[in-house]
Amino acid sequence: MISAQELRAAQAYAADRLAAAGIVLTGAERDAIEVADFGLSRLREFGLMLLVYVNTDRYCAKELVLYPDQTCPEHRHPPFEGTPGKEETFRCRSGSVRLRVAGEERVLAPGEQHTIPPDTLHSFQAGPAGAVVTEFSSASRDELDVFSDPDVRRQTVVG
Amino acid sequence: MISAQELRAAQAYAADRLAAAGIVLTGAERDAIEVADFGLSRLREFGLMLLVYVNTDRYCAKELVLYPDQTCPEHRHPPFEGTPGKEETFRCRSGSVRLRVAGEERVLAPGEQHTIPPDTLHSFQAGPAGAVVTEFSSASRDELDVFSDPDVRRQTVVG
Q1: Which of B25, B54, B108 to probe by mutation at the A interface, max A CB count within 10 Å?
Q2: What is the pTM of this model?
């Protein structure tokens, strides 16, 4: 659970970091920035902010914004509807992000990218300056993500 | 056909416009910027510069850069390998771009986007300040594109 104040502050932080990275959003997009605490109620440590540009039955594109040192917990994107599950490419835009994929670590600086195969355990953590990461992928079904921590809930409750 | 000098100038222009839009590239990516004159040998009028970030069997992401008033000629992305053909979303990053899709026109300003269905005739033209456009799509097979002008050749010859 996060407070309404945490939600607003996280949306404002994400909009500011995206603008600083040269990424122009419409007003409706700024209002639609999603804040995920993964049900862990420690947003500054575990979570991320995200904006979905497009998500068709075939492909998806999003911006991910992380607070300094914030971690998106380990998860995988399982097969669905006859597909092998979501395949995704992370491209760092600003700050830095440490990716852990199937036990291997790499740090992406701005302009660097890495592709994560479907149904493969991964997590990522922003560096000390936070991170803006563009995600290109096949179709996204966030609600199907399988997290390693049984306490994770993908739906964010604002209370 | 374009000259080696036109090729280098177009790559430098595209790298400069991407940098001005806040988009960080690696050195290898700057060298890999593709210049397309569509075989019409009038690059400043007809053509575009493009950088492919990723193109898997499932999704693709590119940056497109256009000179002021430059036009990408009308074409469609036909079905292939059991798919309905490439579906693509254009998101304007800087400048402006006029999209013509199946006879309908719209102008995208920075932060605005539009999705073009598969196998649908479309063309686009940059505004007077040129354009940087991010393209999110299903898998891309540029060599299969069908152009309305029979003089178009997708392969650029540098001579």
Answers
A1: B54
A2: 0.97
